[in-house]
């Protein structure tokens, strides 16, 4: 990495951008252990020797995983720390890397942010520990997402193959068929409003993750990344197909302007104001905990298609566990990753409602045949597993996607609140992302 690139990344962090683009890795302040690359044999030896590792993660199912791991390996102590969710943790992690102290051994990092930490040399390449031998263990979307260049910088913890959650009660009351294409989805949205219904097809105020996932499903690839060489192109056929379809719904006021994850949003999901939610397969637990009064009203269907008869899907959300380059106990840290994301920890997390990234679980009859009382007894995992198998391959995120997402509302998001069109907003997003990348030392086209 060039000195110019490193200086740029540090400067951006100092300006308060939530980047995850790091300095060259600093030494860990942990005592003992080897900080270099290792082998599978080193992993076994580290488990026998024992020691302490620190894990930064916000995912609650890891609490039981940690307890079980310590019970199986009594010489190992795992300190599980919630340093904040998503961008809050990334800021804390970058600050620790910058300071050269307080860096955890393991960090939960969402797929879209992983490349930023990898290119910043803040994460360890796990290949030498045997991570490359896990190919085939995970579904294609998550497995592709933990790769950067020739390295593997995390193990998938979960996945977010997309599906359409829909309120069957609202659909039945308005005589609406479940849409199988996005054109049918638009018609369903219109029918709800024409019926003078209190319901809207969805809540949408503009979201970077949802936008990129919908474009991902089209098969378009606006981001191409090869190390520090980046291409950004939001003029493709799939991008325009998405923009034109969504523009219709914005222009016709077919969305309700309720912001996601707010109390109002949960209430709108409960009372039928929001009739569908197209998102990742991790959502059921959120329905059960956040919208309990609507149990029995909701169902799950495949994601609507851009082309009639298609089966294409995309990912939305999901996280990895990664070993930091600053860790002084990389082998032991990797042992925890394998346990949590490729070993016994998988079932522990599934039992608590997590959605797997592993093909064995996605294909097991036990998993597929689970009946969700919340969804009227539906075997919803069959829909999710089919989606996981049909995720369009080849998608890439920018190595500074966290920054790109942070300017979404100032670019594409303006199409929801002004006369700016989505196409114009996407072009603005592209131009500002290109400019930023060039300022940081990337070669951007």
Mean pLDDT: 91
Q: Which word captures the global form?
A: globular
CATH fold topology of the largest domain: D-Maltodextrin-Binding Protein, domain 2
CATH class of the largest domain: Alpha Beta
Tally the beta strands: 15
* Uncertain residue segments: 1-35
- Per DSSP, what share of the residues sits in E-state strands of 2 or more residues? 5-15%
Structural class based on helices, strands and sheet pairing:
alpha/beta
How far apart, in Å, are the first and last alpha carbons?
18 Å
Strand count, sense and barrel status of the largest sheet are: 5 strands, mixed
Strand order of the largest sheet: 2-1-3-14-6
| Relative helix content | 40-55%
Count of individual helical segments: 19
Radius of gyration: 22 Å
The CATH architecture term of the largest domain is 3-Layer(aba) Sandwich
Query: Could you name the CATH homologous superfamily of the largest domain?
Result: Periplasmic binding protein-like II
Keywords:
445 residues, alpha/beta, D-Maltodextrin-Binding Protein, domain 2, 2 domains, 5-stranded mixed sheet, 3-stranded antiparallel sheet, 19 helices, 41% helix, globular, disordered N terminus
């Amino acid at each position: 990495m060039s000195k110019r690139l490193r200086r740029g990344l540090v400067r951006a962090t100092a300006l308060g951008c939530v980047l995850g683009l790091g300095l060259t890795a600093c030494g860990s302040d942990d005592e003992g252990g080897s900080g270099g690359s290792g082998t599978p044999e080193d992993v076994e030896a580290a488990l026998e020797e024992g020691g302490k590792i620190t894990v930064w993660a916000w995912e609650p199912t890891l609490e039981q995983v940690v307890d079980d791991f310590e019970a199986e390996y009594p010489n190992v102590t795992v300190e599980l720390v919630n340093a904040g969710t998503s961008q809050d943790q990334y800021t804390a992690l970058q600050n620790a890397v910058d300071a050269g102290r307080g860096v955890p051994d393991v960090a939960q990092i969402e797929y879209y942010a992983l490349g930023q930490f990898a290119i910043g040399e803040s994460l360890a390449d796990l290949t030498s520990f045997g991570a490359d031998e896990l190919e085939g263990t995970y579904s294609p979307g998550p497995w592709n997402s933990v790769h950067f260049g020739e390295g593997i910088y995390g193990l998938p913890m979960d996945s977010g193959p997309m599906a359409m959650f829909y309120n069957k009660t609202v659909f039945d009351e308005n005589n609406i068929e479940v849409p199988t294409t996005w054109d049918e989805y638009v018609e369903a949205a219109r029918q709800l409003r024409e019926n003078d219904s209190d319901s809207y097809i969805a809540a949408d105020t503009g979201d970077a993750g949802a936008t990129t996932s919908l474009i991902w499903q089209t098969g378009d690839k606006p981001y191409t990344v090869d190390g520090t060489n980046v291409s950004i192109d939001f003029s493709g056929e799939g991008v325009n197909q998405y923009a034109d379809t969504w523009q219709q719904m914005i222009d016709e006021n077919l969305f309700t302007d309720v912001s996601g994850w707010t109390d109002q949003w949960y209430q709108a999901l409960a009372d039928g104001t929001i009739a569908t939610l197209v998102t990742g397969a991790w959502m059921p637990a959120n329905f059960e905990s956040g919208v309990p009064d609507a149990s029995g009203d909701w169902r799950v269907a495949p994601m609507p298609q851009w082309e009639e008869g298609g089966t294409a899907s995309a990912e939305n959300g999901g996280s990895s566990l990664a070993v930091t380059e600053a860790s002084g106990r990389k082998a032991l840290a990797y042992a925890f990753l394998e346990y949590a994301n490729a070993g016994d920890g998988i079932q522990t997390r599934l039992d608590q409602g997590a959605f797997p990234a592993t093909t064995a679980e996605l294909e097991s009859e036990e998993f597929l045949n689970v009946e969700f009382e919340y969804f009227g007894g539906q075997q919803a995992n069959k829909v999710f597993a089919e989606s996981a198998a049909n995720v369009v391959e080849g998608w890439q995120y920018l190595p500074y996607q966290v920054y790109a997402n942070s300017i979404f509302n100032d670019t594409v998001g303006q199409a929801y609140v002004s006369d700016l069109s989505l196409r114009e907003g996407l072009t603005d997003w592209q131009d500002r992302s290109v400019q930023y990348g060039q300022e940081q030392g990337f070669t951007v086209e």
